[in-house]
Amino acid sequence: MPAAFAEGVHYLRPEGVFVAMGNISQGQMTPFDPALVVRKSARIIGVNRYPPKYLHQAVRFLAGPGQRYPFDKLVDRQFALKDAQRAIDASARREVQRATILPSL
């Protein structure tokens, strides 16, 4: 979701590093103030495709210390595992921004 990029830059510390991933749909725009990056002497790194071990590390983070953060607010719709194709199709049609598939539903 491109708006998350524009918002996230506000949270950078001086000389911080902003890692942008997930914004892979071309043509989706968001207002962005580049002066924020310049004033903070920050770096922006785009990441596309990453080794599977990072997904494992992310899940471990969310199950442990990541529970302090409201990541559930990033999800706008949940689907049962049997409805995974519906979730993929709805995402492709841009009916949802962040679909989550829950095996327990």
Beginning-to-end CA distance, first to last residue: 25 Å
> What percent of residues adopt helix (DSSP H or I)?
25-40%
Trace the largest sheet across and list its strands: 1-2
Discrete helix count:
4
Category by helix and strand content: alpha/beta
How many runs of DSSP E, i.e. beta strands? 4
Structural notes for this entry:
This protein has a domain at 1-49. Helix content is 31%, strand content 15%. The protein has 4 helices and 4 strands; from the N terminus they run H-E-H-E-H-E-H-E. It has a two-stranded parallel sheet. Strands 3-4 form a two-stranded parallel ribbon. Strand 1 (17-20), helix 2 and strand 2 form a beta-alpha-beta unit. The model has no long low-confidence stretch (mean pLDDT 86).
In short:
The chain contains 4 helices and 4 strands, in the order αβαβαβαβ. With 105 residues, it is α/β, with parallel strands linked by helices.
Features:
single chain, 105 residues, alpha/beta, two-stranded parallel sheet
Outline the secondary-structure elements.
Layout: H1 2-8, E1 17-20, H2 35-39, E2 43-46, H3 52-63, E3 77-80, H4 84-92, E4 99-102
Parallel strand pairs: 1-2, 3-4
